[in-house]
Amino acid sequence: MDAAMQILRCRLYDPRASPVFASAEENRRKLYDLFRHTICQACNNSALLLGPRGCAPNVGARARFERNPGDFSGSNFDRREDLLFVISPLKLLFCCFRSQVRLNGLLHADDRSALKEIAKQLCVEHELEFSKAASFEENLRFLTVILEQFSLSHKALVLVLDEFDLFAQKPKQSLLYNLLDLLQSPSSQAAVIGISCRLDADQLLEKRVRSRFSQRKILFLPPPSEEITRFLEAVLVIPVDSSANLAQHANAFNAKISAWLQMETTKELVNKLAALDSSPRNIIDSVFRNLLDYLKNTKSTTPKHPPTICALADLSVLELFLLTSMKRLENKERDTYTFNSVFKEYQDGYKSSDSYSKKAAYKAFEHLLERELIGYSDGRAVSTLSHLRPVKMLISFEELEQGLEASPICPATLRQWYSQPGDLSMFSLITFSWNVSAEA
Amino acid sequence: MRGRNAGTPPAPRRQSPRFASPSSHCDPSPKSSQSLGLSPAPRSVKRDLGFSPVLPRARSRRKSRDGDRKYVSRIEWNDGVFEVGEDVYVRKLESAERDESDEEVEDCRVCGKVGGEVMIECDACLGGFHLGCLEPPLEEVPGGDWICFKCEKKEAVGEEPSRRRHRTARERLLAKELWAARIERLWMEADGSPWFSGRWYLVPEETASGRQPHNGSRELFRTKHVDHNEVESILRHCYVFSPEDFSKASNEGDDVFYCEYDYEMKWHTFKRIVDLVEEADHDFEEHEESKASNKKRRSSTPNKTPNKTPKRKSHTEVTGSEVLRRKIFPEDSGKDLTEIEKAKIALSLSTTPGSLPCREKECKEIEAFVTDALKEGLENLGKCLYISGVPGTGKTATVLDVMRRMEKKLSTKEIQPYRFVAMNGLRLTSPEQTYTVLHEALTGQRLSWKRALQLLDERFSNCKSLGGVDSRPCILLVDELDLLVTRSQSVLYNLFDWPCRPNSRLMVIGIANTIDLPERLLPRIASRMGLQRVSFSPYSYIQLQEIISFRLSGTEAFEKAAVEFASRKVAAVSGDARRALELCRRAAELAECRQKSGDLEGRCTCNVFGCPDRCSESNTRLIGMADVEAAVTEMFQAPHVQAMRMCSKHAKIFLVAMVYEYHRTGMVETTFDQVSRAQSLLCSNNGEQPPDKDVLLSIGYNLFSVFTCNLWELRCKLGECRLLLCETGSRHRLQKLQLNFPSDDVSFALRDCLDLPWITKYLS
After folding, report:
1. Distance, in angstroms, between A192 CA and closest chain B CA?
2. Which of A57, A85, A210, B742 could covalently link to A220 via disulfide, CB atoms 3.0 to 4.6 Å apart?
3. Which residues of A touch B345 (CB under 8 A)?
4. A81-90, A406-415, B605-614 — which is least confidently predicted?
5. B160: how many CB neighbours lie within 10 A of its CB?
């Protein structure tokens, strides 16, 4: 049982163990070739892996490393001599002939710290003492020297730069320049792999850096929707081990899974999700809850309304009034409005003696600002003249309408006022004021 | 006690360095007569400055394989065991007959006896003294510097003609009668004779500037030069340490040295050895300061450094992998490289071609500049040259090529000797670092930039105090010059002002991308630097073609048309040679890939499908147009079209809605609100159900929320891939959106979309 849990957990949460789509397989081959050239033929390479989040370009890079030798034997080499030829050196190659450094653009604020991190990782790997005080220049020279040494012993260095676009946005791009420049020298054997979700990441490079970059881009894309069911099956079905006495449990589980996959609702759900976003991570996340409900035979409680509607339903009557007046102003094709004009609209619409005072309305207005249901439409951050600053509603009319529906304290007159152009009738005013006083 | 200058590592007292047993003498006299005939004059080559500085990798690797050499990591020879990575004394040929004085221990300067008691070393004259022979006798070795009584009295050195003293190997080394080298490789030749390749050390006197006051008495300089010699010529071990290990060393005997700098023989410049020592900005109180910072530094203790220091363990690691390598690549070395592999190696950016085609004119200009400047005599050598050109047009390569030629001229004595310093603006920590680097390269002394600036300023403004090698003209090459621009532009001003001073003997060659850099600077700099210029224009396709075929000469892998196609493609875009080479390399890789799959499956399947062109041998062996074309599309095609094709259904609709809004309003920018309205319109008009109620309820979301919330996510996703440009999320529905590429691309990408056939009508 534990073993089964372990397998599922790995597949779901560890990107390395999760099965791979056919489209990704092609990319893996490309990447593999690239590393092979670097390691066996001492060609220096640089490449960019691009793709939206959740399609796991970095998973690709990592999986490539860990699983290569095995994959290789299984996939496209059928002939015996090829196996002998390739596997034994490659296995060795991948364990002893490369050294890997990983950086993340989100972690290293500037080029200096990034280079320091490279030096640190190399020092740790090779049991050197690392000096915190070393400057950019020294670290760079250290890197040059160690690369020279690596290439003497035919060891390749693989540098993986996660969030590559952030490195490219550093002012001088000196890290990228130097790394890519090192690739030009005959005394180094290295590959620089950038990973980014920005498709135009290579356009961010300065000219002199771009010229040194080899312009290889490998695109990782979400799989076509047809593959998703197969993917789910591959993730969820447990391999049945005949020797274990738990085989029947596993079989039962697998049967349940396939039954679940056959269900109409499941299919529909999967299609729906695929229509929105078919990246593996998203699908696993979204489908999982449904699966749990199915397995445990429960119905998990879900929030009745989405967050915006909930926020609207919690508002006080006055706040709802203000929002509605804004909507009315927008209907009158007034693009911008200030607090004063909104309050005027409220007073015009609500001609009664017991309307809220301007001060109370302003408090409500501030509250709306705080909850970011409305916002100032000019860019300035703080200003004292907030009565006169133009504001804008940040929610759509549909959301406001639903919020009014959902609000337990919303008076009927307000709903009426929302849908009707013009002023409130006398009658509704009376009922409304009665409501308000009852609340108070 | 001599005042220590900055940059000199401390040479603290070592306890009893000479306390070594006399039994370890080796008696070399019989061998030496033998070695007289055998050992080639080891360092004769070294004096020849014409050696090629950079060996292309492929060549060096093959060289190590050739013949029947058997590489070993250790050799036993004449009672000594030598391992790779150890430092040894090497005999000079002419000193062979004086071998009888190869004492490993030194005698006491007072009693003249050898060994027996603890000895102490004078820090000034390196003479040894028994503690008991001193006046008054010392109980133990004192800390700190210790100066013998003779030196204290400032008596002239070498005053003792009365007694013939033994001379140690150390003394002979310092007197330039021996050489020191590090063994980098050991092997047995086919005839069984052991050889080694050694990397030479120099004593300060052998450097062009001679012994400087800040050089330590046991300081050596490492060179880049490696020679092959017979093991026969090795005298015995010596030990070269980093300054820190040197200060820690206690009991290794007399043959201990330290080495802090690499010495560039060609240009007489110094370069600090990385990892042997770390620098800190220390121009004061050397001793304490370095002791305090010892812990912080990345010191290389013997058993930790893998490869760069002369430590034993480290080198066993390197040799270990060398052995591994030979095991691993048997098929590589055994079979000849295929044509395509050869082409790939020739095309890779890291191979250095012998010469640079298509830059003859610029080459001549630069050469003329350098020779002119050098020939003008001692007065007013100062000159500046500014080189501009887009990246990948061979600026740096050309300058370095010129320098290589000048070197040849230098060796034939056509021109007077000069020095050459190269630096790169992007490798410096800050623009001011320039001063430090320049000063260090010229003198081997590392200072803070302020001090270095001061000294450099003095150096270039009055020349009379300088003699020897310092009077040689110096050529300074500054790559990526534009990075040195500071707000006050003082670094650039200084760099270009110094050459203009009388008798400064400095020449500056600046390289940058922009053609009008001088004009963008202050007028006082522009007037100094903008006088002489060379501009590198982008390569035309004919030139690129020539470059590629020059590199490919000797291999037959490429079709002619393919090369032309590739060069035309690149010339049309940028004229960047790097890119052209990369493109061809990629094409070669693709061709190789194709061949491999052809080899595996092609033989049978191709016959079945009957595609003759793929199977015909001559065709598949060459890299043709098709491969280049594939490489071009891979490199130049922006990925966004493909990304759009593969994105999910609603993302596509969203993009179409953007285009639709754009056509409707004519504005490039829209708001999220508008787009979402357009999207729901599109969905409802075309029977595309916007995510519908029942399914969504089943997972607990209602229609609306999933619709907008996910639209929201969609927007994030597209924005993250930069298919869209958008404002930060806090603006909610008012967030402004914009397509990041022409709307035609969307039309192009989504035109033949299978799952949404109706989309086309909105895209026209």
Report:
1. 14
2. A57
3. 41, 43
4. A81-90
5. 12
Asked whether B566 and B628 are in contact (CB, 8 A), the reply is: yes
Cβ-based contacts of A302 with chain B (< 8 Å): 699-701
The tokens describing B37, both together, are 């005939």
Of A155, A199, A301, the CB nearest to B643: A199
Residue B543 has pLDDT above 80, yes or no: yes
pLDDT of residue B376: 62
Chain A, 312 to 371: residues with Cβ < 8 Å from chain B are none
What SS3 class is residue B740? Answer: coil
The most distant pair of C-alpha atoms in chain A lies apart, rounded to whole Å, by 97
Of the pLDDT bands very low, low, confident and very high (cuts 50, 70, 90), residue B172 is confident
In angstroms, the separation between the Cα of residue B91 and the nearest Cα of chain A is 28
Segment A147-183, tens digit of pLDDT:
887 777 777 788 888 888 888 888 888 889 998 988 8
| Residue B433: pLDDT band with limits 50, 70, 90 | confident
Lay out the sheet containing B419-424: strands in order across.
B419-424, B474-479, B506-512, B383-389, B533-536
| CA distance to partner chain A, nearest, from residue B97 (Å) | 38
User: Measured between CA atoms, how close is B275 to chain A, in angstroms?
Assistant: 7
Q: Does A79 touch chain B if contact means CB atoms closer than 8 Å?
A: yes
Given a contact cutoff of 8 angstroms between Cβ atoms, the answer to whether B261 and B272 are in contact is yes
Name the residue among A421, A388, A404 with its Cα closest to residue A321: A404
Residues 6+ apart with CB under 8 A from B428: A137, B434, B437, B483, B484
User: pTM to 2 decimals?
Assistant: 0.68
* Tokens, residue B218: 């046991």
Residue type, A179: L
Inter-chain contacts counted by CB atoms under 8 A, chains A and B: 258
Beta strands in A148-288 (DSSP E): 156-162, 190-196, 216-219
Most confident of A6-20, A168-182, A214-228, A275-289: A168-182
Structure tokens at B12: 């603290």
Q: Do A154 and B325 touch (CB under 8 A)?
A: yes
Tokens of B741: 């590429």
pLDDT at B99 over 60: no
Contacts of A145 in chain B (CB under 8 A): 274-275, 308
- Between positions 385 and 414 of A, the ones with CB within 8 A of B are 392, 394-396, 398-399, 402
3-state SS class at B137: coil
Q: What residue in A sits closest to B640 (Cα-Cα)?
A: A199
Rounded to whole angstroms, the Cα distance separating A212 from B619 reads: 32
Region of residue A222 (left: phi > 0; alpha: psi -120 to 50; beta: else): beta
Rounded-to-integer distance, Cα B559 and Cα B556, Å: 8
A207 interfaces chain B, CB cutoff of 8 Å = yes
- State the smallest CA–CA distance between residue B123 and chain A in angstroms: 30
What gap in Å lies between CA B251 and CA B266, rounded to an integer?
Answer: 36
Which of A223, A279, A288, A300 lies closest to A257, judged by CA? Answer: A288
Give me B477's structure tokens.
Answer: 């090459």
The nearest alpha carbon in chain A to B276 belongs to A142
> What does the pLDDT average to over B731-753?
74
Least confident stretch, A363-372, B181-190, B308-317, B503-512? B308-317
Radius of gyration (Cα) for chain A, nearest Å?
31
Residue B571 pLDDT greater than 70, yes or no:
yes
Q: Which positions 132-171 of A are in contact with B (Cβ < 8 Å)?
A: 132-138, 140-142, 144-146, 149, 151-155
The verdict on a CB contact (< 8 Å) between B733 and A396 is yes
Q: Is the pLDDT of residue B501 over 60?
A: yes
Q: Which of the pair, B544 or B649, is modelled with greater confidence?
A: B544
Has the ipTM of the complex gone over 0.85?
A: no
- Sign for the CA dihedral angle at B86, B89, B92, B97 comes to negative
